[in-house]
Amino acid sequence: MKITHVETTYIRLPLRFPYTSGERYALGHAPHEASGAILIHLYTDSGHEGIGEIHIKGGGLEGIPIQQFINHTLVPHVLGADPLQLQTILQQLWIANQHQATVHVAGFDIALHDLIGHILGQPISILLGGKIRQQIPLTWNIPATRDLDWMEEQARTAVAHGFHHVIKVKTGTPWDIDALLHVQRGAGDVPLRPDDNGAFLAAESIARFRTARDRGVRFEFLEQPAPNHDLPGLRQVSKALNERVMYHTGFVEPTVAAQLLQHRYADAVSIPVFRHGIFGAVQLMRAFAAAGIAVTMGSGLEGTIAATAALHVASTIDNLRLPVDTLGPLWLETDIITSGPRYAGGYAEAPDQPGLGVTVDWQRVRELTIR
User: Fold this and answer.
1) For the domain 127-360, what is the CATH code?
2) In sequence order, which residues have a C-beta less than 8 Å from that of residue 304 and are 6 or more positions away?
């Protein structure tokens, strides 16, 4: 069996509401109005197919040269390959990708897992060892904005729709304390997970979050409350406030993972599948499990294909003990999936059909294509 053909399609997916981090918003950067995805469609001489997604933040014209790079540099390493030789293909793709964004290889990884699932007639969750949970608890994510009443209403609406585990808030602005107070008022008894994205020094975060807590804000975790390079700063914040801290900067580099494992700077680590791929994410999650460090999944506004891959992983990993940010279609104003994961009442469920278990509306894909 061989992969005989690869098609890539770049699409723009409008979001339901503008989204950005606190630091970017405070610096005057416009929020994202859309997300983007380069779809990877694999064909084989046996008639089996696989679909994957390379996430393109913002969904702008910058995705066109990325698609050209994918076609010219990565696709040749897949053509003619036996899809069941997953590790060999991924090793070649990582080498060819060099220092480009990790999402490139992650998209192929998702497509290969989908293809293998179709070949074997099994969902990806079975390939990973089988589901240990049917329902996956979710966060709700509130972007940074100056409209604090809107943030409060977002929290209130999310809780009313069953998001009772945690409300995540994009912080990193000068008005964070007021924003957290508004969100907590909307969330009621549901705790918050502020995500600074490393915008403040550890000492500043200690002062900010102490003030917010003294004024009634309840925290589940503090996500990235120190600069990305300051791993000891995470533990400094944790000890000063007696709060749990989480590491997340998108892609967890191997050298950083080694430090986190050795020194336990964080109580939890966020490992997004759309950046690591299924194979790499599972390896990391199991390494952190051996160290007794919990894992969860962050989001980059990825589409439903990548989100579904993450849900398959989330349904199988025992160490994934925290609500995940993998909202998939709940981010999107329009979608290309007509059947797939189930979202309801603050939970998601991975499909039980072969591969990813999604059905793509190819007519909608053509309507959303960027050329």
Assistant:
1) 3.20.20.120
2) 328, 329, 332, 335, 336, 337, 340, 341, 358
